[in-house]
Amino acid sequence: MNRMLRWAAVLCIALSVTACGKAGVDAKRIEAAKASDWLTYGRTYDEQRFSPLDQVNKDTVGRLGVAWWASFDTDRGQEATPLVADGILYTTTTWSKVFAFDAKSGKPLWSYDPEVPGEKGFNACCDVVNRGVALWKGRAYVGTLDGRLIALDAKTGKVAWTVQTTDPKLPYTITGAPRAIKGKILIGNGGAEYPVRGYVSAYDADTGKLDWRFQMTPNPTGAPDGAASDKIMKDVASKTWSDGAWKEGGGGATPWDAITYDPKTDLVYVGTGNAGPWNSKVRSGGKGDNLFAASIVALRPDTGEYVWHYQTTPRDDWDFDAVQHLMVADLPIGGKTQHVVMQANKNGFFYVLDAATGKLVSADKFVLTTWADKVDLATGRPVEAAGARYENGKEQEQTPGALGGHNWQPMAFSPKEGLVFIPAQTLYMDYADPKEFKFIPGAWNLGLGPATLSPSHAQPAPFGQLIAWDPVAKTARWKADFAEPWRSGVLATAGGLVFHAAGHKFIAFDAATGKALWSYDTGAAPIAASSTYSIDGDQYVALMVGFGGAGGMGGGEPRRKGRLLVFKLDAKVVPTPFPAPIVQPPLDLATATPSKGDVTKGAALSQQFCVTCHGAGGYLPVLARSPVILDPVGFKAIVLEGAKKPHGMAPFRRFFDETSAEDLRAYLLSEAAKPPPTGAPQMTHGR
Ligand code: CA
Predict the structure, then answer these.
(1) Average pLDDT estimate for 47-68
(2) Torsion angles phi and psi, residue 583, rounded to 5
(3) How far is the CA of 346 from the centre of ligand 1 (A)?
(4) pLDDT of residue 10
(5) 8 Å CB contact between 77 and 547
(6) Phi and psi for 581 in degrees, rounded to 5?
(7) Which of 90, 264, 470, 490 is the most buried (most CB within 10 A)?
């Protein structure tokens, strides 16, 4: 070995093997978008979720079967998109755990558990989910539910660095996948229901040093943050807020999902969450647009410098987060090719924006949308329906509601068909203006009153649609209807297929016509989007299975251990059937210690603190069926002191005392005496 080579070898050992020869995933590889790979959340930087692979196609898809599968140790919502690079498949599960498999054989290679404290589950509005990792130069990066960003060695799972991206005292969460852009790892956060103050951060991929941060709302103290957002906050955003409860929580606008980089414009597009509290009257005196909540914001990835924004829902009153999948594409509009960003927003409109300037190209309803008549293309603002804002003690029943016409579930685009496939849903919701409002630090603060209207008039039962949306013609070319509103994300392939799951069925549709060509019974309802890759001449399709998330918390499915199913042609592996769900039988109330608590007060506490997770549909244990409520001592040990913290049940001592805990128990005992809701699924008590 000559001196130079020996020196290189020493450097390689010192710097880690990945620095030498095997560079891992980088910008060149992501931009080259080799058909066999799935290197970033949306496969490529434009996040079209379109794979050029076509071995599995309209003719062969009937031969698709399970090649290998894996079972996980968590039984709540699985939202991750599996990534594949250099023969390794990376995925994440609930509680921000990371798993690496041999992508061909399914052999487990390593796993990493960040050991998120169970009580942090209370800070997650919408389940303890995680949507996956980012890959960059020999490392895998994960954001954790308690706000950490962690760099792992992609070969071994060993921790390279960890940073806390949020104030751990505040109810921030991370559920979104990080993105690796120009040597930086970008990550947002969630928590706009509590609310917190949203921001996106960029960390140096090598060292974990904070490169820049962009706040999505002004600092309530009026002081600059020393962040990339300071100038635009002072010049523009701060003037769009008035006095109100936003000053206590920071206004929301949390960028908890979409972060899309476009190498062509060298811009990163970030979708921001709802304004918080939801009710604009209590939030900001009903005044101002409240920037940059419910917006799409374009930033320079090198510096975090503001370039443009488009607010989809000015002065949001309805939880209309604008975090849904942001996709970049070239579309033939008006006789020329236009480079655009697209979003099927929670608010029911499909937006097409010029990628360089943010100028609105079109905005059209893709689902039944009653809160606004249209978007004025000249001003870019919605033309709201009368009464939509439920002001002055009024109520408003409308669709979409807080779950949106489309939520986080990724769309897919087929450039061959010129279609965007939207996993859409239609659900009505009732919004009511409260008589009074008091901000409770650390808890949900929506600013809504008790709703009484729903359903006050004829409305369709909740349902779902996979919509093949033509963004040029601004209309649907085909739709597939489902009884289930809350379903999976979407994958499109050059094989002319669109993969989507509804209920327990994983379905391959003909992308051109919407005809179902193949389906597979997954045994549980997937909500994640599938991905596809190829190794040694075989095309694989990978799907995480596990029901939950915002639309799953209300019930509809028992909790089952998460699974990864990986398909290829002519494979015939039969996964073990899921065990039958554990039934929570009605309680024997003769064994209960009677309660002298105030049932009415207990009902209010249940509404404020319990039903989001322990609703009647029963995603988490149905409290009126839990033996825990029979005995005041055990009940208080859990509710006040946190005896079930490891399972995700936070202690509520900070919110209520012995008297209120007993009021809650009195209410739950009164509910237990009523007949059980029919068809309510019953739950396991896992983590
Ligand atoms: Ca929200």
Answers:
(1) 98
(2) -90, 135
(3) 10
(4) 45
(5) yes
(6) -60, 150
(7) 90
Query: Which residue in 75, 127, 257, 319 is the catalytic one?
Result: 319
Kindly tell me the burial class for residue 544, based on how many C-beta atoms sit within 10 Å of its own C-beta (0-12, 13-18, 19 or more): buried
Cis peptide bond upstream of 455, omega within 30:
yes
110 Cα: distance to centroid of ligand 1 (angstroms): 34
- Ligand 1 centre from 345 Cα, in Å? 12
pLDDT at 456: 66
**240: Cβ contacts below 8 Å, ≥ 6 apart:** 288, 289, 290, 291
Known active-site residue 75: no
Phi, psi for residue 377 in degrees, rounded to 5: -70, -25
Single-letter residue type at 116: V
Is this prediction's pTM over 0.90?
Answer: yes
Q: How many whole angstroms from 186 Cα to the centroid of ligand 1?
A: 20
Other beta carbons within 10 Å of 541: 27
Q: What is the DSSP string of 41-86?
A: TTSSTT---EE---SS-TTTGGGEEEEEEEE-S--S---PPPEEET
**Side chain identity, residue 327:** M
CA 239 to chain centre: 30
Residue type, 118: G
For 196, half-sphere exposure in the C-beta direction (CA atoms, 13 angstrom radius) is 25
| DSSP 8-state class, residue 675 | P
CA 350 to centroid of ligand 1, rounded, Å? 18
Distance CA 252, CA 318 (A): 13
Range with lowest mean pLDDT among 8-12, 496-500, 580-584 = 8-12
User: Would you state the structure tokens that stand for residue 4, as one six-digit string?
Assistant: 């130079």
What spacing in Å lies between the alpha carbon of 476 and ligand 1's midpoint? 27
Tell me, what's the pLDDT at 609? Answer: 87
